Amino acid sequence: MVKLAGSPESLRRQNRTNVLNCILNHEAIDRTQLAVETGLTTTAITRITRELIDAGILETGEKAPLKSGPGRNRTQLTFTDDNTFVIGINFAAWERQMVLANLKGEAIAYRPFELSNPQDSAQTLEEISHTVNTFIVEQKIKRNRILGVGFAIAGIVNSTAGRLESSPYLGWHDVEIGKILSDKLGLQVAVENLNNIIAMAETRYGCCANKKDMMLIRVGPGLGGSFLFDGKLARGDKFQAGQVGHIPVADNHILCACGQKGCLNTIASGWSILADLNLSIPPASSPGRLVDDGLLLEDVIGRAQNGDEVVTAAAFRAGSALGDMLTALYKALAPEVVLVVGPIAEIGSYIDGIQSAASNNKITLPLFTPNDQKFKSVASSAALHGLSEFLFSPRLRLAELMPVSATLDHPYLSGEINP
Ligand SMILES: [Zn+2]
Q1: Same domain for 364 and 236
Q2: Domain check: are 355 and 382 in the same one?
Q3: pTM (2 decimals)?
Q4: How far, CA to CA in Å, does 285 sit from each of 267, 271, 329?
Q5: Which of 58, 227, 245, 296 makes the best surface tag, with the fewest CB within 10 Å?
Q6: Ligand 1 centre from 169 Cα, in Å?
Q7: Which tens digits make up the pLDDT trace of 93-128?
């Protein structure tokens, strides 16, 4: 491997990254201000921004009025919004969806997708890559104008290697998702745990911008979490942080998909609501019933929203169990904000259960739920993750975006081939 650290190429990439991040922090900015904020010379700024304009990443907008300060060139620079893109993919029990987003992070097109057998990783990745290729063709986009793909999945993800270590709810182990999809698509792919993806998107672009200490819980058939301390994701040893659903708390001997008994999943998840209603049997959130339980939960959420008292009471009990856990975690970690997201968090009585338990524990949680806040879709968050990884980082492949390199030799790069 070529060692880049400290090399002129590495320095160039880092300077370019600093410039791009500085532009991200302003809606529009001129070169003089960029030089001031990045500490680079105006010559360096001129060269870097010219490259980025040539590559179709930046465009010049209106000239700002010259109020004060040095410099002749006050032309505002902004990101283009119609010629370079990222794709975000969410592969969860709910909302299996891909989204095409522009460099401003705006979603341009969505495409939901179905899978014939989610437990089969090889077949699933084949189907997803086929759908992505169809999506690209439908959107009439040249493949070399796509910076990369952000991929969100539930489970323990080694994000450095792009590998899913394990996912109890899918029954997948050691799947090289990043490499497999990248080979199939001819695109860079960044794989990340979906809770981490939501946490990063909401703190960088969404409802919790500028919050640095956050606890996020996502409730679907199972429960998962993500924690940010001082603005950084807590990944834990071997990327295992965040498995809130598998904290053993209940003395109920109910088996969970992870193999343990009494996990929080057995009393506070979407699955636990189904079990409470005698609609599902242990193990909790098992791969074998992923599809059926998903359909049952959709029905249960609908019943709750229509005021069905039996369902409402079951959701309240599950919410209370999560509320007790959140109280304990809040006491230990003292986050500025607690986000509870996911389809089950849309049931009002589930949230009431959380609040009630916190109140019984004499705690006021700084809680944000779908009732208070419209969260970004997970697929949009995955696209924003793609931007973070492939635009606002030294991984940006600028040469491939330059007009002269439009004939790079990957078979899909022309975008003309219908895979
Ligand atoms: Zn478990």
Answers
A1: yes
A2: no
A3: 0.88
A4: 12, 6, 23
A5: 296
A6: 10
A7: 767 899 999 999 999 999 999 988 888 999 999 999
